[in-house]
Amino acid sequence: MQAIKINTAAPAPPQSAILLLYTGGTLGMQLDERQGVLRPFDFAQILRNIPELSQLSCEITVVSMPQLIDSSNMQPAIWQEMVQIIAHFYPDYDGFVILHGTDTMAYSASALSFMLENLQKPLIFTGAQLPIGAIRTDARQNILSSLEIAQARHPRGQVLVPEVCIFFNDVLIRGNRAQKEESVLFDAFKSENYPYLAKAGVHIQYTHEAIAPCPTAPFAAHLALDNRVALLKLFPGLRPEVLQALLQIPDLQGLVIETYGSGNAPTADWFLDSVRQALARGLVILNISQCLGGQVAQGRYETSVALREMGVVGGSDLTTEAAITKLMFLLGQKLPPEALRAALAAPLRGEMTISPGE
Ligand code: ASP
């Protein structure tokens, strides 16, 4: 794998070593004049656009994924490659920055948060709404602050943010709590149910009490993911045939249902019978809400009592991105059914708040 090394402190020795993994996305795109579309281009050219890098006292190693992609083409196999790269370089670096398209960044950050257990170093995803060559680009600021966070330490030397995060438009968000909520303005990512881990202004102000403590158990990278899953968003007018067709996919192992409000769904017989039969066949069903804020509390309304009694797992305040990737990750662990359901309902990497009564 080709790696470019830059000592931003040269000729002085660097104070830290950061691995920058470039995956593609708008940040590194340029306009294909002939076809009028944006395509990713070679990273070596990007660095020329950030002369401010020389003010960071670190050694940056830039590694590019073999295929630079628009993140709409993200796949679990690419998460596995990313995890292998992080695991390979893990012992030799103080922190990691992943340059990624914004479209699926929250999915990737969620997936990697589950796949990397006992992470003791910062892993910061960032990207941009405008290519780095554009006059008003947000790329420069996002990269520079992400690098600063990736090398940040407490005065006594401990790592400040031992988590998978997204840094974007001056906020640092726990990766598995982030959602892309804006496609045009610069504040693309929000976290409705968990405080920002830091805000960048004149200084980067960390919310220390929101940041996970540094684990003491050894770091472990997990590659197994099972994508025999589906996602169903309820809407008034959903036809029985649509639900049945989905539930009859022969090898389907898990389903995330985005229900209404605090976890409510239709009480019509056709709906509940289909769900009951699917659960009886061994399908795991996770109930999350279409509402961005708040959480699922199955049993609060009559319209969710049956789901709880049938064995649908309440997903509390999981984002869609965290729910679907957590399901893929846990199915990949090949847990027995009860252990799988228990693991889905409990926080693994700070991705959910345990709701009372669930
Ligand atoms: N389509 C782009 C991507 O996700 C958008 C972006 O980078 O912001 O790769």
Summary, kept brief:
The chain has helices at 43-47, 76-89, 105-115, 139-150, 240-247, 269-280, 302-310, 320-332, 337-345; strands at residues 3-7, 16-24, 29-32, 37-40, 58-69, 95-99, 116-117, 123-126, 164-168, 171-174, 179-180, 189-190, 198-200, 204-206, 220-221, 229-233, 254-259, 284-289, 313-314.
- Identify the CATH architecture of the largest domain: 3-Layer(aba) Sandwich
Do you know the CATH topology of the largest domain? Answer: Rossmann fold
The amount of beta strand, in percent, is 15-25%
Bound molecules: aspartic acid
CATH superfamily of the largest domain: L-asparaginase, N-terminal domain
Roughly how much helix do the residues carry, as a percent range?
A: 25-40%
C-alpha geometry: globular
- What is the H-and-E element order? EEEEHEHEHEEHEEEEEEEEHEHEHEHH
Helical element count? 9
Low-confidence stretches: none
Give the mean pLDDT.
92
Structure, explained:
This protein is an alpha/beta fold. It is 26% helix and 24% strand. The chain is built from 9 helices and 19 strands. The protein has helices spanning 43-47, 76-89, 105-115, 139-150, 240-247, 269-280, 302-310, 320-332, 337-345; strands spanning 3-7, 16-24, 29-32, 37-40, 58-69, 95-99, 116-117, 123-126, 164-168, 171-174, 179-180, 189-190, 198-200, 204-206, 220-221, 229-233, 254-259, 284-289, 313-314. A hairpin with a 4-residue loop joins strand 3 and strand 4. Helix 2 crosses helix 3 (105-115), helix 3 packs parallel to helix 8 and helix 5 packs parallel to helix 6.
